[in-house]
Amino acid sequence: MNAVADISPVAKVGGQPWARIPQDLYIPPDALEVFLDAFEGPLDLLLYLIRRQNINILDIPIAEITRQYMEYLTLMQAMRLELAAEYLLMAAWLAEIKSRLLLPRPAQAEAEELDPRAELVRRLQEYERFQQAALAMDALPRLERDVFTASAAPPERQIQREPPPVSLADLLDALREVMTRAELFGRHHIQQEALSVRERMSQVLERLDALQFTPFTALFHPEEGRRGVVVTFMAVLELLREALLELVQVEPFAPIHLRRRI
Amino acid sequence: MILEAVLLAAGEPLSLERLLDVFPESERPERDAVRKALLELMRDYTGRGMELIEVASGFRLQVPGLYSPWVSRLWEERAAHYSRALLETLALIAYRQPITRGEIEEVRGVSLSSSIMKTLQERDWIKVIGHREVPGRPALYATTRAFLDYFNLKSLSELPPLAAPRDLDAIGATLEQRTAQARPQTEFPDV
Amino acid sequence: MILEAVLLAAGEPLSLERLLDVFPESERPERDAVRKALLELMRDYTGRGMELIEVASGFRLQVPGLYSPWVSRLWEERAAHYSRALLETLALIAYRQPITRGEIEEVRGVSLSSSIMKTLQERDWIKVIGHREVPGRPALYATTRAFLDYFNLKSLSELPPLAAPRDLDAIGATLEQRTAQARPQTEFPDV
Q1: Closest residue in chain C to residue A160, using alpha carbons only
Q2: What is the pLDDT of residues B102-158, one digit of tens each?
Q3: What is the three-class DSSP state of A29?
Q4: pLDDT tens digits along A77-136
Q5: Is C14 on the interface with A (CB under 8 A)?
Q6: Which of A45, A205, B7, B169 has the most CB atoms lying inside 10 A of its own CB?
Q7: Could you give the CA distance from residue A217 to residue C151 in angstroms, rounded to a whole number?
């Protein structure tokens, strides 16, 4: 794996991209902050140091990389940049790996123990994978940058709202609920009444005028039969009882007239 | 094609100046050339799902009014469900009509929002048929012909009889059964 | 042409279902007919100022990347440039979802700023889809459909492939080998 490839500029100074840092580590003081800001943490800084030297991650020279890493840290501290704890943690880890590599390892331990660099390499590789993935993702055609939603002004909008459907079962369900509640609280006693009478009450009320009298007989339709007549009659009585109607008879046996109470 | 792309991406009218500005100075075409290209586009779009028109602030791509029936359905609000309060109110009006708002409130035990009555009236399911002669002259509500039609009823007497709450459970079960049998093909019978 | 009109008016991806819904039930074409018509449109647009593509939430008419030099000049503001930190975080969530914040921090080796997570959530690119059942019940993040739409993807499988991981044992073995090879020359090769 050649880790160097094309690395994107790590910083911009005065509009000039800085792909790499001068070997002698001289950085204009005002640019340093910008430069260090460009690192996304210790792993990123390490990867940068490794790539800069064109080294494979697997050949990572711990001593040299540790030395360079510490130099950066010193620089950062000299600049009084607040060092994130992660940077210091990494420094400690690097030092530990270095010392473990220097220590002679007992023969029998060698078989079980992994190379002390292995975990560092694993993390560097893992991070590098996602760095690359982020670059690849950034290169995807992106809405608002590369492609744009095509649109045309919609025509005059006719707002249509389709009313929700209701089933008779829903209605009955609702009624059941309200009745149960009413009964439970004893608020209201709903008496049973033939629906046809209540319907007729509505019809009669609608038919009647508040200003003009309507002949009583006009409310009856013989074609409805005896039952219909009874229903109408009961509806009129109920309306009278509820004081919704006014009944007028000028003289006995004269035609009865009705009108809505105003 | 550049003009088409730019107009499509803009989503707003673009003046001739703005259209010219999308070209770097060195490659900027003549005003007349752009105008001519726009006229050609206008012609090209005949019979298409879009048209190019000139409005006060420039050139705009729009969907012809012809397509409005389909386009409008895009934004149609999905049929939601009516609230329990609305259904209870409707049930009470159906079974106890003519009825005042106060009477509905009394049975339901809560005050009734105006929006419910408005919705029911807008849907043409209820109407005011008079006023009760008590102080305040409250309106009396009743169901309409449209209400009966919607529920496939010839008259109110075809509504399941109003009985004691316990019996309503049984009626509900029967009704559901019947409805299910009557319309085996539809999943959600709307009656 | 109806499809073209509707897609243009919508200005957002439309699923096949939504496209079918714009037709009244009685005139609704078959799914396959609509699909075929869309494929035809896709072909028709070759070389035009727009293209029809399928992304996660449906079909979208868009101006191809080819025209972005001109289209970008329409707006003064340059398209948002996202920081590496944000892109790396997004990549981790995209490839490793569902993932906790701690796991993202573990791979990146730095703590994650809340503003990044907030930006990603505000853009509707990521969302919390649950919690890991460990102490503290950390939120599990995943990418959204809007994320796929934005990056012109139909599904996560269309993401660029991630470099193959190497497990610790393999790394260890390679390291041993290399060190062994290197030893003859220097006593402490890299160290």
Answers
A1: C22
A2: 889 888 878 888 888 888 988 889 999 988 888 888 899 999 988 888 888 888 888
A3: helix
A4: 777 667 778 888 999 999 999 888 887 766 665 555 678 888 899 999 999 999 999 999
A5: no
A6: B7
A7: 78
Cβ proximity of C55 and C152 under 8 Å: yes
Contact B157 A168 (CB under 8 A): no
B42 touching A (Cβ < 8 Å): no
Tens place of pLDDT per residue across chain C (191 aa): 799 999 998 888 999 999 998 998 888 999 999 999 999 999 999 888 899 999 999 999 999 989 988 998 888 766 678 889 999 999 999 999 999 999 999 999 999 999 999 999 988 999 999 999 999 999 999 999 999 999 999 999 999 988 877 777 777 777 777 766 655 444 444 43
| DSSP code per residue over A178-224 | HHHHHHHHT--PPPP--HHHHHHHHHHHHH--SSS-EEGGGG--GGG
Over 90: is that where the pLDDT of B78 sits?
Answer: no
Q: What is the DSSP string of B4-68?
A: HHHHHHH-S-B-HHHHHHTS-GGGPPPHHHHHHHHHHHHHHTTTSS-EEEEETTEEEEE--GGGH
Which residues in chain A have their CB less than 8 angstroms from residue C64's CB? 147
Q: The tokens of C5 are what?
A: 């009109």
User: What tokens does A22 get?
Assistant: 């001068």
Q: Which chain A residue lies closest to B98 (C-alpha atoms)?
A: A202
Q: Which residue of A has its CA nearest to B130?
A: A205
* Contact assignment for A118 to C91 by CB distance below 8 Å: no
Tell me how far apart the 2 most distant CA atoms of chain C are, in Å: 85
Tell me if A177 sits within 8 A of B144, measured CB to CB: no
Measured between CB atoms, does A261 come within 8 Å of chain B? yes
- Tell me how far apart the alpha carbons of residues B159 and C68 are, in angstroms, rounded to a whole number: 65
C95 touches chain A (CB under 8 A): yes
Position C124, amino acid: D
**DSSP secondary structure letter of residue C142:** E
CB contact under 8 A, B140 and A205: yes
For testing the chain B interface, which of A151, A180, A234, A238 should be mutated: the one with the most B CBs within 10 Å? A151
Does domain A168-260 fall under CATH 1.10.10? My reply is yes
Chain B contact for C50 (CB, 8 A cutoff)? yes
Contact B10 C67 (CB under 8 A): no
Q: A153 - beta bridge partners?
A: B62
Any chain C CB within 8 A of the CB of A64?
yes
Q: Cis (ω within 30 of 0) for the bond into B98?
A: yes
Contacts of B18 in chain C (CB under 8 A): 74
A143: closest CA of chain B, how far (Å) = 11
